[in-house]
Design a protein that fits this description.
It is an enzyme of class 1 (oxidoreductase). Its EC number is 1.11.1.-. It contains seven helices and 13 strands. By secondary structure, the protein is α+β, with helices and mostly antiparallel strands. The strands form two sheets. Strands 1, 2, 3, 4, 5, 6, 7, 8, 9, 10 and 11 form an eleven-stranded antiparallel sheet that branches. Strands 12-13 form a two-stranded antiparallel ribbon.
């Protein structure tokens, strides 16, 4: 069977195509090649209070999902996208990062679903991921890995690790052992509260009408040196619809977004929420109050979709600690841990060839 790659690129004048993105990025210092530095990842404990190492997470993901060489440890199933960010210049008030100056910046990205098994079936209730890597002159980059959740499930490295192991499917049901998960939630009330918050958010029909959030707190620093805690999100510019619960298609989310981008570009507003002194910057399980000031900084546009392959988002490590001048990490303990584990995942898959993409031509590859 001959497989055809899913590729759609807008040909309209002024729109950044996937080809122009890759060529343009190469010209400013190697957007994709920058990930080669990720092989030098941390091997020691993930934070001052943790005895966990990146290898411990590698082993845990393998125990839960099995070993799938050439794929990400988490969010193994995905598809590559590209496009651009049209900044309106409003973000310059709070950050000197070049991407927030008025103008257009190319980007590559990746839609994904969680888990280390690249053949997992899509479900409407499962979290959805969107990673973006935004590049601009001088080789400076901004990378962000977002989820369509109102809060993150964990606020510590140990909590994430414990939840991962508690989620291991049992052979009889293919789902997590209820007793193991109950023990975990008893030991981690912060996750129980976060999951309650998450359940209150109604699911949407797919990737295109999902709100994606960075969840962890960062700091924006403007040209005057003023420093403000922020969280960012992408708000969809298309109508939000409920999911089609009658569909049994195991690739429903990816089929839908492929059709959507083939029909026309998808757009989100990039919103930056400014925290107040009383807002917790270390705990992503706690939502900030809804009345916090939010700045609409411009529009993220995705106009191309492609099967994961060499040279596109398949090779990008969406490390949240890859930040330009003007954006700084907070003291959230999950940030350096995520960076180290992402690097471990990148290192393991970087040298593997022949791993077939699991989303291809609108169908799960067989």
């Amino acid at each position: 069977m001959v497989r055809r790659s899913v590729v759609h690129s807008s040909r309209r004048s002024g729109v950044v195509t996937r080809r122009s993105v890759v060529l343009g990025i190469a010209a400013v210092g190697g957007f994709l090649a920058a990930d080669l530095g990720a092989v030098l990842y941390a091997r020691g404990p993930l934070g001052s209070r943790s005895r966990l190492t990146p290898q411990a997470f590698v082993d845990a993901f393998h125990e839960v999902a099995g070993v799938h060489r050439g794929y990400r440890l988490n969010h193994a199933k995905g598809i590559a996208v590209s496009g651009f960010f049209d900044s309106n210049g409003a973000g310059e008030e709070v950050t000197k990062a070049a991407v927030f100056r008025a103008g257009r910046t190319p980007l590559v990205g990746r839609f994904s679903v969680p888990g280390g098994n690249p053949t997992v079936s899509d479900t409407t209730a499962a979290p959805r991921g969107l990673g973006l890597a935004i590049g601009y002159p001088g080789g400076r980059q901004w990378r962000t890995a977002m989820l369509n959740l109102p809060v993150f499930q964990d606020n510590s490295v140990q909590g994430f690790y414990d939840r991962l192991l508690a989620s291991k499917p049992v052979p009889d049901t293919g789902k997590a052992d209820p007793a193991a998960m109950a023990r975990f939630l008893t030991a981690h009330p912060e996750t129980a509260r976060a999951m309650s918050t998450i359940k209150q958010q109604p699911p949407t029909s797919g990737f295109a009408d999902s709100t994606f959030r960075g969840l962890n707190t960062f700091y924006f620093v403007n040209a005057d040196g003023d420093r403000a805690p922020v969280r960012w999100s992408l708000s969809p510019m298309r109508e939000v619809k409920p999911p089609d619960k009658s569909s049994s298609n195991p690739n429903r989310l990816f089929d839908s977004v492929i059709r959507d981008i083939r029909t026309g570009p998808l757009r989100w507003r990039l919103l930056v929420t400014i925290g107040e002194p009383e807002d917790d910057v270390r705990d992503a399980t706690i939502a900030w109050p809804a009345d916090r000031r939010t700045i609409d900084t411009g529009t993220v546009v995705l106009d191309s979709v492609a099967t994961e392959s060499a040279g596109n988002a398949r090779d990008v490590n969406f490390d949240p600690m890859v930040l330009p001048d003007g954006i700084e990490p907070s003291d959230d303990p999950l940030l350096p841990a995520r960076s180290a584990v992402y690097a471990a995942s990148f290192r393991r898959r970087a040298g593997v060839t022949g791993a077939a993409p699991q989303v291809e031509d609108g169908e799960v590859a067989q």
